[in-house]
Amino acid sequence: MAESFNGLFKAELIRRYGPWKGMDDVELATLEYLDWYNHRRLHTACGDIPPAEYEAIYYRHQQAALTAAQTK
Length: 72
Description:
Layout: H1 2-17, H2 23-39, H3 51-71
């Protein structure tokens, strides 16, 4: 899976927007890309919501189920 993400990262960011002036530019672009990838990208496997939102919903449901189980 890491190899797949690495290839996607290179294709979508590094090769598309290069050449880069220096490592600082690459680091800033990487942070912006990861923010988009996790917080704004709509993912079809997650019901067309961003992965971070999907994860938050999952953990809220897990916590609610745990609380309900403890009150029984």
